[in-house]
Design goal:
By secondary structure, this protein is mainly beta. The protein is about 5% helix and about 55% strand. It has two helices and 22 strands. The strands form two sheets. The chain has an 18-stranded antiparallel beta barrel.
Length: about 425
């Protein structure tokens, strides 16, 4: 571990355990997971992860610090150094081929009258969708294992000011200021989850002298900050929100350029306005979930050789139906739709795309045994992801599980590009 990173973590531990502060509580989670790629006859992961959380009452509120350390007997999924997509000086993270350590979250929260404050490195969750994201884009995501990680684990906490105020009509307004320009952490080139689909990256097969520049997080503290506003209210049996986010999109735009020395693929980050809404309600045995987002100035892969992208606005929607009328069971169906405004004849993808998800979960033996199966399927590209998982609550604080993840479809598709990354997994989670 680099000396500077170690000093920061050690200093935080000393500060948190200082006698000058009080009401200390702590806990944690130990996770271990192994994943075997039966197609490649190789262990994809032999990993363990330790997460420690410390809470301490101080300065009229509560401090929370969460640290995370990971080791892996394999190096297939890991970066060998801290990604350049992390904002300089704000990540407090260190990576090697077989291990990583980071200060995951560090924030102070308190209430002042009708206002709730949370200041520091944290996560903010928006939206009602499950499995794919539409409004849940305040935090960047770690795509180390594509979307196989739980979102709570794959979101990258960032430094921000988060204020929520209760209004006289019982609605809640949330304001975010995010000066941390950290963006998505993409899987490294040697990983089975490295992006290769022409939907996402330029295709350079057969082209000589191609140089790909690594994406770098924006560096301007104020000008590259994100700001957000959300209004939430319960009205006439519905929970609904109105959302606005002005942000640097966490997906780098890859533009192809020709030079005297060959082809260069350059990365840049662009700004966008997101306007959205969500709603949910319960009707007898059904839960209805709705989500909508309109985004300006998004970039999409095009059939043009140079620069290989076109700018267009886009919108997306989610309709979800959850049925809970069967004892100890859940059945969930979702329909995701996205549409690009214009340039339909120049896009690599379809201007309108639809994905459906089906999730079934059943609990047995007094809720100690859980079976969960899901399928994400693209109606346009006919590719998808099937997942199954069997979890047993061995002790009150100990779960053991086994499962399988299977990608299918054409390798040009969003899911099909990982057709060779199928795996079976087993693991445990122990909370203390």
């Amino acid at each position: 571990m680099k000396n500077s990173f170690g000093r920061v973590l050690w200093g935080l531990v000393i500060m948190a355990t200082s006698p000058a502060l009080y009401a200390v509580s702590w806990g944690g989670m130990l996770k271990s997971e192994v994943a075997y790629s039966h197609l490649n006859h190789d262990w994809q992961k032999l990993g363990a992860e330790l997460e420690l959380e410390l809470n301490e009452t101080a300065l009229g509120g509560e401090f929370t610090m969460i640290t995370r350390a990971r080791v892996d007997g394999q190096d297939h999924l890991n970066s060998t150094h801290k990604p350049s997509t992390y904002a300089n000086g704000r990540s407090l993270r260190h990576d090697t081929a077989h291990a990583s350590a980071e200060l995951s979250e560090l924030y102070w929260e308190a209430e002042s009258g009708a206002t709730y404050w949370r200041i520091g490195k944290q996560q903010v969750v928006w939206g009602e969708a499950d499995g794919l994201k539409l409004l849940d884009v305040v935090n960047p995501q770690n795509y180390r294992e594509f979307i196989l990680d739980d979102f709570d684990d794959s979101r990258i906490p960032v430094w921000m000011l988060n204020a929520e105020r209760l209004l006289p009509d019982d609605s809640i307004v949330q304001i975010l200021w995010i000066p941390d320009s950290t963006s998505h952490d993409l899987a490294p080139a040697h990983s089975p989850f490295h992006f290769t689909s022409p939907l996402l990256v330029p295709q350079t097969t057969g082209t000589a002298n191609v140089r790909v520049e690594d994406p770098k997080a924006p560096s301007r503290f104020v000008r590259d900050s994100d700001v957000a506003l959300r209004l939430a209210r319960f009205w006439n049996g519905w929970d609904y929100t109105l959302n606005y986010l002005y942000h640097t999109v966490d997906e780098p735009v890859l533009r192809t350029q020709l030079t005297a020395d060959g082809t260069i693929i350059r990365s840049a980050y662009e700004r966008s306005h997101l306007i959205g809404a969500s709603a949910s309600t319960a009707m007898d045995d059904w839960i209805i979930r709705l989500e909508f987002a309109y985004e300006t100035d998004r970039y999409h892969r095009s059939t043009d050789a140079l620069p290989g992208v076109v700018k267009a606005n886009q919108w997306g929607s989610v309709l979800g139906l959850d049925f809970q009328g069967w004892s100890d069971q859940l059945l969930s169906v979702q329909w995701f739709q996205s549409r690009v405004a214009g340039h339909g004849d120049r896009l690599v993808k379809e201007s309108r795309e639809d994905v459906v998800t089906l999730i079934w979960e059943h609990r047995f033996l007094n809720d100690t045994l859980t079976v969960r199966a899901s399928n994400l399927y693209s109606l346009d590209r006919h590719d998808g992801l099937v997942r199954s998982k069997l979890t047993y609550n061995l002790l009150s604080n100990l779960d053991v599980y086994m499962g399988a993840d299977r990608f299918y479809g054409n390798q040009a598709g969003l899911f099909g590009q990982f057709d060779q990354a199928d795996r079976v997994v087993a693991g445990l989670e122990w909370g203390f």
